[in-house]
Design goal:
Structural class: alpha/beta
Strand content: 15-25%
Helix content: 25-40%
CATH superfamily of one domain: Valyl/Leucyl/Isoleucyl-tRNA synthetase, editing domain
CATH class of one domain: Alpha Beta
Number of strands: 37
Oligomer: single chain
Strand order of the largest sheet: 2-1-30-31-23
Number of helices: 26
Distance between the termini: 68 Å
Largest sheet: 5 strands, parallel
Mean pLDDT: 89
Shape: elongated
Length: about 950
């Protein structure tokens, strides 16, 4: 009753007197109910308000569907609150997911559809730093976090407004934030659970590092840059004179893209089968530049600047061994490889395997630490130049030193890709620092099996997941040296360095704000310091299905403040579906699978639905960072949310989609046609009391009803496979070609004065118009929620009787899920009706060809109509003649041929048609 009252209340102020009468009266001209033109600017905000006020999208764990085990839970990506707006690519991805949600709701499922906001971590910090032009290191932690919280609140409000205006059928009562206490508790609970299971460990290890953001990274945070020329620099390493072999080489030549790391070289490496280096097995090499010693001083120049200068002296070289390793490619470069600490994962592997020394010469801010080389010391590894390219000032300085001291042999072009931090596109370095790691590398086989147990839509996306798992080279580093994130729930003892963890009943907790309530569990010392790092944002985001199911409280008493009843958790975990874009398969999807595997030994969901990217008109991925986007709010204001959703439905699942305004205009044309076709149907439904006259369907009625059944079957199969694009194509094909171009054109003549149709045939037409129009609204409802609701409430709901659903979105989908029976025009499908219908359309097309050849307008009556057919063919044609004659605007049809008349062949048959425009012509025999 709440839905009925709310919908009626919200409609009343906007309806004409005629429309208000239609709430209880059908004795009026129903076509007057609908304005001539559809105005999305008036309609869409009204339905946003009505749906929310009615609770139409609220999750009800005690509903009949939920009690019957028919709950469909959606785990949807919480967007980063890292900009003042979203782009149409986001609107595309979220709309595609919501198509399936609305379909499932019409299938009779209780829908659990929350929205989250991923508002902790580096993306938000970077946004705040850029917006306020601040450095987080130069203001207090609290001031910086307060700015982040303000921006996330403001951003979340903007995002929610957009999602509502887009028509997303979300239960906004279930909204969560990844920085809110509930999510923080889950992330900290997860951390402690993994500690107890032996899956988390703190170790000092080489780690991926962003020098611009000054934080550790996980492998999933790194992407390959574009191919570009990264020159190979040939650097000579001299053999240490103390280890020279008589008659052997005196030097070795390596090629590297990172000459600035030469001072950090700890070994040269070659393949054990490479005969070129056999004689060097016992030698040691001198590391270039390591013998230089500068007597550093400062002098003032004429322009007042201060420069460093000094005399160069020579000391002892640092020497390194030659190691033999099967992983070295003898065909690459010179076959001799420089191993330094650290340039890439290959260096780390050889450093570990051969137990090499460690020489670190790059600090956390990407500055060189080479005090013996003042021209290089302090130079940044990567500095953004004015032209937005990346200039490596450390490399330039190192190359100059290598030239000056005759170590640089040559430079050659080399096309390759750099490893970049995906958030800021800064080349990634490798540092050594204590971090928290979740051990995953030993679980690859189990995680691969989890991926195979998932239902993937589209199926090909599973390969991306498997490639990522197979190629994992690092355990998951979850430590971040930032401010705005979930704090680690622990303190370190200042005496023995033992970690002291918070208790579950103390969560959520911020150790930076709260002292440890206990002395050290290892030594009893009362002096403990907090862990200063925060967790990787994915540590929280990977828990979204568990957060929604309130996992952290499964062993505790239910939280009465939560709208979700505790007993409902099994209905929403594992969730029914995860919807997301393909670029975060390696992050959000993988991490969520891993976390659910570790915490609950299960999958987090049954199915995944992977969308593509929204592209700009040039085919480049839309990006808030790049600015090549269109704001969805502007498109909605101009064309309406339904038109934008229609554009989103144009992409095959998993494929990228260009934003082209013409495609959105195509959606607008569809809306206009649906509106006008419904107004047309209403012309013939006024003063109609269904059921007073028995139906006598004609060939046209039987054909369109059979096509309707086929269309429902095709759309249902497509939606069940998350192929919304195929569902829309099926619905559109039926609507434009069968319904508008043919059936409506045929059936309108049934209502003309003087036609030979009986009351039963007119009743069949009205029945078909009403239920066909209702069917079309249901087919399009998942894609075009606003227009279909408006048409249903104003035009069709009252005609369907007192048992009509209160909303088109709560109406049953026109195919029963269990029996597979199509419920509209039930039992009326006929292959024969389809064949007869196609013949009828071919006959009518032939008449149109005759009219064109004879230059006779389509509205001009015909006084004669002939079909050349044998006796058997004529018998087959007789059931079609009433519709054929009426649609042709003729007085009748006879079998035979007529001389000197406009004629045409009937496509796909041996029949021919002839017409008589003005005078009767006596039929001539065959």
């Amino acid at each position: 009753m709440l839905v009925r009252a709310t919908f009626r209340a919200v409609l009343q102020p906007h309806l004409s007197g005629c429309a208000r009468r239609n709430m209880t009266d059908t004795s009026i001209n129903l076509a007057e109910i609908l304005p001539k033109n559809y105005d999305h600017r008036e309609v869409e905000p009204r339905w946003v308000q009505a749906w929310e006020a009615s609770g139409l999208h609220h999750y009800r764990p005690d509903s009949a569907a939920a009690r019957a085990g028919r709950t469909f839970a959606i785990d949807t990506p919480p967007p980063y609150v890292s900009a003042a707006h979203l782009h149409t690519g986001h609107a595309m991805s979220y709309s595609q997911a919501e198509f399936v949600v609305r379909f499932k709701r019409m299938r009779g499922y209780e829908i659990f559809y929350p929205m989250g906001f991923d508002d902790n971590g580096l993306p938000t910090e970077r946004y705040v730093e850029q917006k306020y032009k601040i450095n987080k290191g130069k203001i207090s932690r609290k001031e910086f976090i307060d700015l982040c919280l303000k921006e996330t609140r403001d951003g979340a409000a903007v995002y929610e407004t957009l999602w509502r205006s887009l028509g997303l059928s979300i239960d906004w009562r279930m909204t969560y934030s990844t920085i809110a206490p509930r999510a923080v508790r889950h992330a900290q609970h997860s951390f402690l659970d993994l500690v107890n299971k032996g899956r988390l460990e703190r170790r000092v290890d080489p780690i991926l590092w962003c020098p611009l953001c000054s934080t550790a990274l996980a492998q999933a945070d790194v992407e390959s840059g574009d191919e570009q020329n990264r020159p190979m620099h040939a650097v000579r390493f001299d053999v240490d004179p103390a280890a020279l072999v008589v008659g052997g080489p005196t030097s070795g030549l390596i090629e590297t893209t990172r000459p600035e790391l030469v001072p950090a070289c700890v070994a040269l490496a070659c393949h054990p089968d490479d005969k070129r280096f056999k004689t060097l097995a016992q030698v040691r090499f001198q590391v270039p530049l390591t013998d230089l010693r500068f007597a550093k001083s400062e002098i003032a120049s004429d322009d007042g600047t201060v420069a460093s200068t000094g005399d160069v002296t020579r000391g002892d070289y640092r020497t390194i061994p030659l190691i033999f390793d099967e992983s070295v490619d003898p065909e690459f470069g010179t076959g001799l490889m420089m191993v330094c600490t650290f340039g890439d994962p290959e260096d780390i592997a050889k450093w570990r395997k051969h137990k090499l020394d460690t020489v670190l010469i790059i600090d956390a801010q990407g500055r060189m630490i080479t005090p013996h080389l003042p021209d290089l010391d302090g130079k940044r590894v990567y500095v953004a130049a004015k032209n937005s390219s990346v200039y490596n000032e450390a490399r330039a300085a190192a190359l100059q030193l290598l030239r000056d001291h005759n170590y640089l042999e040559h430079i050659k072009d080399n096309v390759s890709r750099a490893s970049l931090h995906e958030r800021c596109s800064t080349p990634v370095e490798i540092q050594v620092a204590p971090q928290w790691f979740i051990r995953l590398l030993d679980l690859k086989d189990q995680l691969l099996q989890r991926g195979r147990d998932l239902v993937w839509n589209p199926p090909a996306m599973r390969e991306r997941y498997e490639q990522w798992v197979v190629n994992l080279r690092w355990d998951w580093n979850i430590s971040r040296q930032r401010f705005y994130g979930v704090p680690f729930p622990l303190w370190f003892c200042t005496a023995c360095e033992a970690p002291n963890f918070a208790q579950l009943d103390e969560l959520p907790i911020d150790p930076l704000m709260t002292s440890c309530p206990r002395p050290c569990s290892a030594c009893g010392c009362a002096d403990l310091r907090p862990e200063p790092d925060v967790m990787d944002t994915w540590m929280t985001s990977s828990l979204t299905p568990l957060i929604n199911a309130n996992w952290a409280m499964w062993q505790d008493q239910p939280d009465p403040s939560l709208p979700l009843a505790e007993q409902a958790r099994s209905a929403i975990y594992p969730a029914g579906i995860r919807v997301q874009a393909h670029e975060i398969i390696r992050t959000w999807l993988f991490y969520t699978v891993a976390k659910s595997h570790l915490h609950t030994q299960s999958l987090p969901w049954q199915t995944v639905m992977i969308s593509g990217w929204g592209l700009d008109r040039h085919g480049k991925k839309m990006s808030k960072r790049l600015g090549n986007f269109v704001e969805p709010g502007e498109v909605i204001a101009k064309y309406g949310a339904d038109s934008l959703r229609y554009w989103a439905a144009g992409a095959t699942l998993g494929q990228d989609l260009r934003y082209l305004e013409d495609d959105v205009k195509g959606g607008k044309r569809l809306l206009t046609k649906l509106w006008n076709s419904t107004r047309f149907a209403l012309l013939y439904l006024s003063n109609w009391q269904p059921g007073q006259v028995a139906q006598t369907p004609t060939a046209a009625d039987r054909w369109i009803r059979s096509r309707a059944v086929q269309t429902v079957q095709a759309a249902t199969e497509a939606f069940e496979g998350c192929e919304y694009n195929r569902a829309v194509r099926a619905a559109e094909g039926f609507f434009w070609n069968d319904w508008c171009d043919n059936y409506l054109e045929i059936v309108k003549d049934r209502f003309r004065e003087g036609t030979p149709f009986a009351g039963g045939e007119v009743e069949a037409a009205r029945h078909t118009l009403l239920h066909g129009s209702f069917l079309l609204l249901r087919l399009f409802a998942p894609i075009l929620p606003f227009l279909t609701e408006e048409l249903y409430q104003l035009a069709l709901k009252n005609l369907l009787g007192p048992d009509a659903p209160q909303s088109v979105h709560s109406a049953a989908w026109p195919q029963d899920e269990h029996s597979g029976q199509v419920t509209v025009f039930a039992g009326e499908f006929s292959a024969e009706a389809l064949t007869q219908g196609e013949l009828l359309l071919a006959l009518i097309a032939a008449v149109r060809s005759c009219r064109t050849a004879a230059k006779i307008g389509g509205g001009r009556p015909l006084s004669g109509l002939y079909v050349c057919a044998d006796a058997q063919q004529w018998a087959q044609l007789e059931p079609l003649l009433p519709d054929f004659v009426a649609a042709s605007r003729a007085t009748g049809c006879e079998r035979g041929i007529a001389a000197d008349l406009a004629s045409a062949e009937v496509a796909g048959t041996t029949l021919a048609v002839a017409i008589v425009p003005l005078v009767d012509v006596v039929a001539q025999g065959e």
